[in-house]
Amino acid sequence: MRVSGVVANLPVDDIAAARDFYTDYLGLSVEGFNLGWVAHYQSPDGEAHVQLVTRDAKAPKDSVISVHVGSGVEAAYEEAKRRGFEIVYPLTEESWGLRRFFVRAPDGNVINITSHTDE
Question: Distance between CA atoms of 59 and 71, rounded to whole angstroms?
Answer without folding.
Answer: 21
